[in-house]
Amino acid sequence: MRMASIAFLLGVWWLQQQPVLPRLDIPFVIACGACLALLTHGAFVRPSTTRMGIARWGLISVAMLAVSGAGYLYAAARAELRLADALQHTLEGRDLEMTGVVADLPQAVGEGEGVRFVFEVEEADAGVPNRVLLSWYRPRDEDSALPHVAPGERWRFVVRLKRPHGSAVPGGFDYEAWLLERNLRATGYVRKPIEALRIDADAGGFMHGVHRLRADIRAAIVAALPDAPHAGILIALAVGDQDAISPAHWEVFRRTGVSHLVAISGMHISLVGLMIGGLCSVVWRRVPWLVLRVPVRKAAATAALIAGVAYALLAGLGIPVQRALIMLLVAVASLLLGRESAPSRVLALALLCVVLIDPWAVLSPGFWLSFGAVAVILLLAGGRARPRSGWRTAIRIQLAITLATIPALLALFNAFSLVSPVANAIAIPLVSFVITPLTLGALLWPSPVLLLPAHTVSAWMLHVLEWLADSRLALWQQAQPPGWMIVAGCVAALVLLLPAATPGRSAALAVMAALLSWQAPRPDWGQFRAVVLDVGQGLSVHVQTASRDMVYDTGPAYGASDAGTRVVAPYLGALGVSRLDRLVLSHDDADHVGGTQSVLDAVSVVHILAGDEASTLRELAQWRGEACTAGRTWEWDGVGFDVLWPAAGMLPARRNNEHSCVLRIHGAGGSVLLVGDVEQLAEHALVATHGDALASSAIVVAHHGSRSSSTDAFVDAVMPEVAVFSVGYLNRFGHPHPSVWTRWTEAGARSYRTDSQGSITLEVDADGVTATARRESHPRYWHGR
């Protein structure tokens, strides 16, 4: 069972790495299934003689390959079925009328900007998927109330939809995979709020009723704790609404490694099960006729299962909660059926069940961390060490989990908390035995009597965690190591967890040291790399030389968030960049500077160069920049940087686009021209002033490909090999304009666009410029579907 579960898991994981889905012919699938059944049966039948040992292990190996193949085919079939429910391309960006039911707990968007919710479609045009994610925003030009929707309500909306689409950035979050796992096959927004019609206040249905109950509990907690700064933690523990926790608190939890304590998972489900099961056991033992009919252990296990299911429903049955519940179901079923076996077998069966129900679970960090942590606990509880007291065992387990998860955390987040053992030693008892019980007790009696103590303890806990998080040594961050090094690190961590006499511990320490000292490769002297990040309708470019880093613009704001938080900072973290030698802000447009404060908060910045010293730039908390003016030059590692525009003393233009900071970067093998949003006036001046000196190997096209830029004279002066358009998917401006795209293409440039090809990497070395698109170098079968 253990080997088969791991083999099946590997097959499912391998499918999720594929650029396209395999073709599934029915005869081929049947043949593979028959082969799997025969090989698996033969592999696990114990041979009658020891001389067949080699043959048996060979047969087992073949069987495991067949099991992996079965996992691969199973995941492919599930993916094909899910992707078939897709939004037709012809319906994107059109006004569509649809009727359906609010199917989940609505979430606030920003600070009173609107709400976001899952919508189960009942009536719509052909080609609209069954489940979509909708946003309903408050009208900006009206003093109107925040839109209100409740779970289980049936509505008729006019909406605009688009197919799943997210930023494709190295080290970034794969939003399209997240939507696929949750079976959300389109996203959109309510187009005509005034025409929105609530048809039915209660459409019926069990889960709709559950979500309505969750909404009522959330409202009751908010009413009982008005303006309480940490009420979001209690709401998250009660109904699984993680969006109730502020971004500042999430950052504290991330830096201290305690995020798992406030995200309902296996620990919380098990805790509730143990509490109710233990209470049932105490009561059951005192009633003889109950004991005679049902053994105490089975009664307690049943009560624990019922409590776990109830809590999971209350938490909304999200993907992480489903995994935790499946693990509990497997453990309790094993006990009730009298088939108790080694805990590792139960864990393997739970893993198999999770992957069967949710083949996309392998894309979730929580999947690997939760099963990995349980496996470490089982390894340490295997009787290898001498008995120790409770608190010593707890410390040993926490340290072991911290060590074992280092490779996974580096692979998933490029960081791990150095204060995690201390933070967890403080937070786990408080959350497990004080905050969570009080919060769950308040579900039956949602009053300040229980909620106030829970909130007070949460405040104490946050105070200590914030003190730990403020330390400069709280978080270890580095570049994301390659896959082979992650695997080696996992093996090394396993060796270090084995008994002290285990050979190879010195080698394991060396492997862990190599893992922690890994640095991403950088360009050689005289060469540089420019990455045009996929930030949507905006611009952000990372330029890297042999030892220096620069960011040109920080992308747009996304309502309550921005490109600095979502794209630029995670990307820099994946490269291990914690310091920018220079931040260049081309001009004061929100789509170019919207993420600036977030970048300043995420990394240290030595110097800021701004093309337009407008109020928003001067008001930055860490403002210490200088005006970007023509004539400024500098050199890093054999790579030259020349500011070509704006000219000193130029008169104010009608639009600040004309004041954009134009920067030409040149090395031994080529050059890249960054021009911000300059328009025709600035382009004519640049051609008149610099002429042939504008010629560059690559250009990030001005103003996202607008018709107001890219004049014929300017295109002829630059004559690049590569032209990159930084544009948003289905942007309302229609960028890039077809005539502009054609103009650069006819000039001989290979044109790229970030909305369809993701981030574009420009490598400028001795051989010239090489352009690589992220969606083409790292394709996945769900991209664009």
UniProtKB/TrEMBL annotation:
Domain of life: Bacteria
GO cellular component annotations of the record: plasma membrane
Domain Metallo-beta-lactamase span(s) in chain numbering: 537-729
Keywords: Cell membrane, Iron, Membrane, Oxidoreductase, Transmembrane, Transmembrane helix
Pfam families noted in UniProt: Competence, DUF4131, Lactamase_B
GO biological process terms held by the UniProt record: establishment of competence for transformation
UniProt KW Ubl conjugation keyword: no
Gene Ontology terms for molecular function: iron ion binding; oxidoreductase activity
Bilayer-spanning residue ranges: 27-45, 57-75, 261-284, 367-385, 397-416, 422-443, 481-502
Location of the protein in the cell: Cell membrane
Entry membrane topology: Multi-pass membrane protein
NCBIfam families, per database record: ComEC_N-term (TIGR00360), ComEC_Rec2 (TIGR00361)
Family statement: Belongs to the iron/ascorbate-dependent oxidoreductase family.
Listed name of the protein: DNA internalization-related competence protein ComEC/Rec2
Organism: Parazoarcus communis
